[in-house]
Automatic annotation (TrEMBL):
Residues 493-512 are annotated as: Disordered. It comes from Aquibacillus koreensis. The lineage of its organism: Bacteria, Bacillati, Bacillota, Bacilli, Bacillales. InterPro entries: EmrB-like, MFS, MFS_dom, MFS_trans_sf. This is DHA2 family efflux MFS transporter permease subunit. PANTHER family: MAJOR FACILITATOR SUPERFAMILY MULTIDRUG TRANSPORTER MFSC. Pfam families: MFS_1. The chain crosses the membrane at residues 12-33, 53-73, 85-107, 113-131, 143-162, 168-187, 199-219, 231-248, 268-293, 305-326, 333-350, 356-380, 465-486. It is a multi-pass membrane protein. Gene3D superfamilies: MFS general substrate transporter like domains, Multidrug resistance protein D. Keywords: Cell membrane, Membrane, Transmembrane, Transmembrane helix, Transport. NCBIfam families: efflux_EmrB. Its main location: membrane. GO terms for cellular component: plasma membrane.
């Protein structure tokens, strides 16, 4: 019996390893391209507004498909779903590598995203099913290594590749890994989660796509176009209306596409809110640090990426450790310690200046990531632990969707705050310079004026970054207060009915 159990454990570990690699390359690919956007603009002769769709479009497809992932996970087998998702991702990667024109590259990114959107919820759901609740912390901690480390090392890796190779190399590196993962999945992957013969409500899918897609597009565009642009507030309004209609429809359905009734479980509801608040705070570092380091301090993209690398490594090391600590001590202690680190480092970031050393920036950023590593997965896992197993697909889909939406909202709000503060401070500095100028002095040269304008702009932008980090500090304080109300949950005991003991009937048509 022990030998059989050992073989089953090895098979499970091998299966999860395949899912991990697939999820890792798909998440890594999401941030790899950001540094390469200027090179792609030059090669295809497109404007910044067009090239930005390579990132925005990827996020939009994720935001549209992730809510539907709960249906896919329940309706289709793990093996078929992963192979389909990985095939789409691999096809998109190949097309992107060979893309002769920009439109083909954009289509390739959309195809990639359609595969990537399913992988994360599928992996999380398999792990919740495969591991007993007393071991989920360690398992989800390892999962956090993928979720957090992949996007963190993306900018560093892509910065090095772009300095030495064509942007196409970003896809050429990912392609063989994707192909090998697909081959292993075809031969080794087995089914873990149970399937149910449920039907897809097409109208719900349409409402979900318009709702989440509208919100993501509107808030993502606000940073560039401004809140007064009709495309921005128009898509947000349409998104809110569609989303409210979608939620009301789900609450009236016996078999909803996305189960909102899971919010009756208090710890899941609390963990969901805390995760959204943390995602907003985390984006401040990811957005503001490159602006400060590259634009204000003039540090190269490669050195900017290296500055963030120790933080990524610390998060990678800490994720499995945090998982084991979660199993032993629960989520509240870890969240309080982690958020304390996040609050203190965010406050220090609100005090950085032109003279702050490179080493100080590395230390602050690394400590901030250390704090984040103790919060995200424990909080999320504690909430998911309270759900009945049949609701795990809905819980994972809900968490992933809300993180996408809160990330977009957080980044848009932070960029808006930074821009407003920068404009205000720039006006103040110009007024000060005019007030202190000697009217009898000779007129400065054009070069001197240009230098003065650059100094004023940098000082104003630094003030904007400092102010935004201060707001981020208060956001983290809100998360800390909420974390104090967390309790270690007792697994929800499900009643096994006679109906559940009957084998699943043959699959019928999915769309009706």
């Amino acid at each position: 019996m022990s030998e059989l159990q050992s073989n089953q454990n090895k098979s499970m570990i091998g299966m999860i390893a395949i899912l991990f690699i697939g999820a890792f390359v798909s998440i890594l690919n999401e941030t790899l391209l950001n540094v390469a956007l200027p090179s792609i603009m030059d090669e295809f002769e497109v404007k910044p507004t067009a090239v930005q769709w390579l990132s925005t479009g990827y996020m939009l497809v994720n935001g549209i498909l992730i809510p539907a992932s709960a249906f896919f996970i329940q309706r289709f087998s793990d093996r078929k779903l992963f192979i389909t998702a990985m095939s789409l991702f691999t096809l998109g990667t190949l097309l992107a590598s060979l893309a002769p024109v920009f439109s083909v590259l954009l289509a390739a990114r959309m195809i990639q995203a359609s595969g990537s959107a399913i992988m994360m919820p599928l992996l999380m759901n398999v792990m919740l099913t495969a591991f007993p609740i007393e071991k989920r912390g360690a398992a989800m901690g390892t999962f956090g290594l993928v979720m957090i480390t992949a996007p963190a090392i993306g900018p560093t890796l892509s910065g090095w590749i772009i300095e030495h190779h064509s942007w196409r190399m970003l896809f050429d590196i990912v392609l063989p890994i994707a192909i090998l993962t697909l081959i292993f999945a075809f031969f080794k992957l087995k089914d873990v989660t149970p399937q149910r013969s449920i039907k897809l409500d097409v109208f719900s899918l349409v409402l979900s796509s318009i709702g989440f897609g509208g919100l993501l597009y509107g808030f993502s565009s606000a940073g560039d176009k401004g809140w007064n642009d009709p495309y921005v507030y128009g898509t947000i309004i349409v998104g809110v209306i569609a989303l409210v209609t979608f939620v009301l429809r789900q609450l009236r359905m016996d078999e909803p596409m996305l189960e909102f009734r899971i919010y009756k479980y208090p710890m899941f509801a609390l963990s969901s809110v805390i995760s959204m608040v943390i995602a907003m705070a985390m984006f401040s570092g990811m957005i503001l640090m490159p602006i400060y380091v590259q634009t204000i301090r003039g540090i190269s993209p490669m050195e900017s990426g290296l500055l963030m690398l120790p933080g990524a490594i610390v998060m990678g090391i800490m994720s499995p450790i945090t998982g084991r600590l979660f199993d032993k001590y629960g989520a509240r202690s870890l969240a309080v310690i982690g958020l304390t680190f996040t609050i203190v480092t965010s406050f220090y970031f609100s005090k950085i200046s032109m003279e702050t050393t490179y080493f100080t920036l590395i230390m602050l950023y690394t400590l901030r990531m250390f704090g984040m590593s103790m919060v995200m997965m424990p909080v999320m896992t504690n909430g998911l632990n309270q759900l009945p197993q049949k609701n795990n697909p809905h819980g994972t889909a809900m968490n992933n969707t809300l993180q996408q939406v809160s990330g977009a909202i957080g980044s848009a709000l932070l960029i808006t705050l930074m821009n407003n503060r920068t404009e205000t401070r720039a006006g103040e500095l110009v007024a000060q310079a005019a007030a202190t100028a000697d009217p009898n002095a000779a007129q400065p040269t054009a070069e001197a004026l240009a230098q003065m304008e650059e100094q004023i702009l940098n000082q104003a932008m630094l003030s904007g970054i400092n102010f935004t980090f201060l707001i981020s500090t208060f956001i983290a304080v809100v998360a800390l207060i909420l974390a104090l109300f967390m309790k270690r949950v007792t697994p929800h005991q499900e009643e096994t009915t006679k109906e559940e003991l009957v084998p699943t009937p043959p699959m019928k048509s999915v769309v009706e």
